[in-house]
Amino acid sequence: MNKKEFDEFFKPYAKNVDSANNHAFWELSDALITQIIKDNISVDTNEESVILDAGGGTGRWACDLSRIYKSKFIVYDLSSDMLEKAKENIKNAGLEERVRLIEGDLKNMEKIESDSVDHIISVYSPISFIYEKERAFAEMHRVLKKGGKIIIMGHGFCNAIFSKINNFCAGASELEALDKEKMVKWGEHVPKLNVFSKEILENELKQAGFIPDKTYGVPVFVQPGAEDFDPENSKRSRISDALKKKEFFNEVFELEMKYNSLPTIANRGMNMFAVAIKN
Question: Among residues 193, 228, 233, 226, which one has the least CA distance to residue 12?
């Protein structure tokens, strides 16, 4: 994807993305992601440690995780529109002293020194938008300290096939291309995106020098409705309505966390969320 396509896609997205978790489906997804991060990065990180949010967009995750971790954060993103919103969010949260914003390409993070960040998170699949993804994996390996963890998300390959068959009734040629290229196009105004199985994502991490530890599907059982992708975040799906009931939400959360890292289940995930270590 070139810079023009990237900016055209994310400019309107920056305006509404932070209100997406008004949909209970995305609220559940956020809760699962937060729990997975807490399960894999110790909450006892000190004030001098640094967590890099690779493709961190509006800084929402840095703001949310700042309530859990004492560390500093770097929000690194290519979209000036997303980072403008991040600047506003960080100021409103009073986090200017703890969060550094960097505009740049994940394929060339020259503004970050080698072996300088303690952990990396990358949520809601920035890596799916990067066509030369091997360079991005290599750069993330370069900037991470030895012993540090990366927790990185990519769109799910098996879920893409499931959705294209069941929700789109895609043609045979499109399904064949998806299987061969490991890329999916969801709509006219959405760029082609990389998709990953558990095995593909772990292999990409291995090739970059990481040691894969565990991969989760997020989510593995819950399927969003079309309304959950409403760019204005005004419509509500049946599943989002159901998840508004606390008892149902909590039970679904428990089931997801019980099974979402099992090797036989993870590939069901809408997204793959892999944990790996730099040795």
Answer: 233
Indicate the pLDDT class of residue 15, thresholds 50, 70 and 90: low
Helix residue ranges, H only, the chain: 3-16, 24-40, 60-65, 80-92, 133-143, 157-166, 172-181, 198-208, 238-243, 246-259
CATH number of the domain within which 236 lies:
3.40.50.150
Judge if pTM exceeds 0.85: yes
pLDDT tens-place string over residues 214-233: 999 999 999 999 999 887 77
Task: Determine which helix (DSSP H) or strand (DSSP E) holds 215, and give its type and residue range.
Answer: strand 210-218
d(CA 224, CA 24): 10
Dist CA 267 CA 150 (whole Å): 19
Q: Cα separation of 165 and 257, whole Å?
A: 27
* Tally of domains in the chain: 1
Please measure the distance between the N-terminal and C-terminal CA atoms of the chain and give it in whole angstroms: 32
- For CA atoms 278, 75, 129, 198, the dihedral sign is positive
Q: Could you tell me the residue range of the domain that residue 158 belongs to?
A: 3-278
